[in-house]
Amino acid sequence: MKFGIVTLTLAAFWSTAAASPLTVPFDFSKGAIGLEVTIKGAPAYMLLDTGVDPSAIDTARAEALGFKIDRSAGSEATGYGDDKSAEVFPTSIDNLAIAGRRFAPVEALTMDMGQLSARYGRPLDGVLGYSFLFDKIVLIDYPRRTAAILDRPGDALPAVQSCRKHWSIALRGVKDDSIPVISDFRFGAATAPVSLDTGSSGGIALYQRALDVPGLRAALTANGEGASIGARGYSKTKKYVLNEPVGFGPFTLPPGQTVTLRDDEGSADTYIANIGNRLYSALTPKILLDYQHHVVTFYGDCR
Description:
The protein is mainly beta. The protein folds into 2 domains: 22-150, Beta Barrel (Cathepsin D, subunit A, domain 1); 153-302, Beta Barrel (Cathepsin D, subunit A, domain 1). Helices cover 9% and strands 42% of the residues. The protein contains 5 helices and 24 strands. The protein has helices at residues 59-64, 114-120, 130-133, 157-160, 277-283; strands at residues 22-25, 34-39, 42-48, 55-58, 75-76, 87-93, 96-98, 101-103, 106-111, 126-128, 137-141, 146-150, 163-170, 181-187, 190-196, 204-206, 220-230, 233-242, 246-248, 251-253, 257-261, 273-275, 286-290, 295-302. The chain has a 9-stranded mixed β-sheet with strand order 5-6-9-4-10-3-2-7-8. A hairpin with a 2-residue loop joins strand 14 (181-187) and strand 15 (190-196). The longest helix is centred in the middle third of the chain and has 7 residues, at 114-120. The chain is globular, with a radius of gyration of 19 Å.
């Protein structure tokens, strides 16, 4: 599932003072990284999503918590879905805590998460995106189902020192987009840019420009239809089997991966596909997202 939300230019960011590393379990039963948090002391369930900027909170929940919502600055959400209207409003997620650790206010947008919750299978209170992640170092450990917020990259050593494979690239987006990009993801013998999206429970979601990647169109075998849901509701997708190996760096998956094809155009100058948790958890069990130093490192073959 992709939870795309309109990008909001923020006038200022808050920083969090250094503290000891925080490691918490996450719920991966739906293929996304679900975190149990508290907001103003009340329990809440939120997703950790590298593909969203800024963060988001359900409108009804924000109202119930008494958050100030700027109704004069409403806008239309961007992202997946066919709904004609999906209005969002600026707010701030105040008094957010994870495992008892409090964080500075998080810039966010309010949105109706009713359809997202129904599709996800449990109520979603919000999504922690770039406006939460921008100053943090986060280690996602898929096998252990844990997420750690670290003070420095070296804090990850106990969790990754047994991994015999690792690969680092710059953690950066393209143009005005904050979602991290892997610029040379492999599709068979060809490479193309893809986005790294921990808010997606899927594997590879191709955009239309992906069909221009040499050899990719010919490697697709139709495999029915599906549906995805995002900030703008439901959207139909076509499913295929990709008869080429895929991967990046030292990590490769064999031919036979199921992919979807979306109506979004995409671009070779930005990215031609969106890559989600199903693929990352199969390819690289641990990902270190170092937003402080703008580096992402993938680990594999861990013992």
